[in-house]
Amino acid sequence: MSSFENQARFPSYRPRRLRSKVALRELIRETTLSPSDFIWPLFVMDGEDTAFPIPSMPGISRHTIDRLPNLAAKAKSLGIPAICIFPYTEPTLKTEDCKEAWNSNNLTNKAIRAIKDAVPEILVMTDIALDPYNVKGHDGIVRDGQILNDETVEALVKMGAAQASAGADILGPSDMMDGRIGALRTMLEQNGSHNVCILSYSAKFASNFYAPFRDAVGATSALDGDKNTYQLDYANGDEAMRMIARDIAEGADMIMVKPGMPYLDICYRAKKQFRVPTFAYQVSGEYAMIQSVNNHEHVDEKKAMLESLLAFKRAGCDGILTYFAPVAAELLSR
Ligand code: PBG
Q1: pTM assigned to the model
Q2: Which of 25, 138, 152, 220 could be disulfide-bonded to 214 (CB atoms 3.0-4.6 Å)?
C-alpha cells in the first residue's frame, strides 16, 4: 500500500501551493547543507611558505607545513570542523618496505602537530595507506607482483600508531586490505588512544575518478598496474554492504563511500541499512569535472557545486569530504 493513498486529489491537492513562496520552500525543505558537513582535504609538501598549484586540479594547491596554521584558522572561521591530510612525498623517500609511512616525523605527522598546535579545535583526519611511500605506488606492500595483505596490515598499524601519537583525531584507512580495522582498533585500545576515531573507507571502489589525486600526491608515475585486487569492483553494491558491515563489526566509528556522486545509490543503501555516521568522498575527478564547467557559459559552477553537495545529504550522508569545502562554506555563510 502506498503512503500516498490518503492524498487529496486535484484541485484540493495542488502540490505547487507549497512551492509558491520562497519562505514556504525554506520551511518545508527536507535537507540542508552547512559548513559543518565538510571535511577539507589538504595536500602537504616539504619546503617553506609555498603553495604549488596542482595542474590536474585547477584551484587546488599543495601547501608547505608552515602554511597549515593559517589554513586551519580559515577552516575554523568558516565553520569547517575537520581537515584531512594527504602528503606529497619526495620520490627519494619511497621504498619497497614503505617505512617512511610510520616515521614520527614524516610530512603527515608534522602536519598533524602543526594544525593541532595552532588550532586545537579543528579535527585532523589522516589517510592510512602505503601509496605515498611506496616505490610501486600501491596501497600495500608488493612482492613478486602480489599486493600482500597481512604484512601490509602490520605496516598500517605502525602508521596509524604514529599518527595517533602525533595527535590525529580521526584515522582514515583507505587501503582496502582485509582485517585492518580490527588491527587498528586493537592497537588504539592497547596504546590508550580510546578516543581516536576510525572513519573507514569501507566502500572504496577501483575508480577512474582518482587520477587527478594521484597526480597531486605524485603517485601517478609510480603506480605499477591497477588496484583491482583490493579496491571494489564498481559493479558491486551488495559487496560494498558486506564491507561496511565487516568494518563496523571490527570497530569503525564512521564509514565512507568513495567516489561520491556516481555512487549515491551506495550512500543511500549504506545509511538505510546501517544507520551509522556515513560520509562520501567527492573525489579529485569529480572535483575536476565540476570545476571545469567554470569555462562553460551555460552552467553556473558554484550552483552546480552546491547542488552536487546537497545531493549527498539527500542520499543520507552525514558529511562530505570535498575539495570545495572552503569555497562552499563561504557561499553558504553569505
Ligand atoms: C590512497 C588514496 C586515494 C585517494 C584517497 N586516498 C587514491 C587511490 O586509491 O588511488 C583518492 C582521492 C581523490 O581522488 O580525491 N589510498
Answers
A1: 0.96
A2: 220
